[in-house]
Amino acid sequence: MPDTLQIDSVQLVAFQQDPRYDYDRELMGGSQNLLEWLSEVISEWIKDTFDVVLDNDFTYYLLIFIGVLVLAFLAWLWWYKRPKLFMKGDKEEPLDYDVEEDTIYGVNFEADIKQALKAADYRQAVRLSYLQTLKYLEDTGKIEWQPSKTPSQYVRQVNMPAFSSLSRHFINVRYGNYEATAELYEQVKALQAKVMKGGGTYE
């Protein structure tokens, strides 16, 4: 009995050209990199959602641009949260005062500042003057002091140029290893007086 089975070459070619039956591509994963694949997915989504056809090259470079923006934002956020890491300063030297937890409670600021000035410890005097200012702002309801808050957070809360400058001096001296002098302390006291006098806006 003769073999009656015959291959339909036309149908076979149609199956081979139909992407729905391209199982090898699914198993091998294709030769696309992640960015090319993502570009293709986004292009298809835009086409299906908005009925707009985008060029693959355009979508590819758009993804690169968005990635650069995201990296720039993350770098800015890192700088904003940790400004002292980007400050210039000389080689680290022992501080003139013991590093301790900054607090506004249980401190006799007037007596301690007077003692620091008597010892010509302007670094300590600047630090205490800044904390004294925070105590004033807390007592007058301008800020809500918390040990975990950074000076940058208080600057955003107290919209006043004098306080911004005062905070910058504190950060430079407290964390940036900048030298504290009698002249710097006088600037700090003048800025502190402006803050306590008011004239800014508080959020």
List the keywords.
2 strands; single chain; 61% helix; two-stranded antiparallel sheet; 9 helices; 203 residues; mainly alpha
Task: Describe this protein's structure.
The model is unreliable at 89-99 (pLDDT under 50). Helix 6 packs across helix 8 and helix 6 runs parallel beside helix 9. The chain starts with 8 loop residues before the first helix and ends with a strand. It is mainly alpha-helical and 203 residues long. The chain has helices at 9-17, 23-28, 34-50, 56-81, 109-118, 122-139, 151-157, 161-174, 182-197, and strands at residues 158-159, 201-202. It is built from nine helices and two strands, in the order αααααααβααβ. It is rod-shaped and about 110 Å long. The chain has a two-stranded antiparallel sheet with strand order 1-2. The longest helix has 26 residues, at 56-81.
Question: How are the SSEs ordered, and which strands pair?
Answer:
Layout: H1 9-17, H2 23-28, H3 34-50, H4 56-81, H5 109-118, H6 122-139, H7 151-157, E1 158-159, H8 161-174, H9 182-197, E2 201-202
Antiparallel strand pairs: 1-2
Helical element count? 9
The run of helices and strands is HHHHHHHEHHE
Mean pLDDT across the residues is 76
Estimated helix fraction? 55-70%
Strand content: under 5%
First and last CA, distance: 96 Å
Q: In angstroms, what is the radius of gyration?
A: 32 Å
Which oligomeric state applies? single chain
pLDDT below 50 for ≥5 consecutive residues: which ranges? 89-99
- Summarize the biggest pleated sheet: 2 strands, antiparallel
Structural class: mainly alpha
Shape estimate: rod-shaped
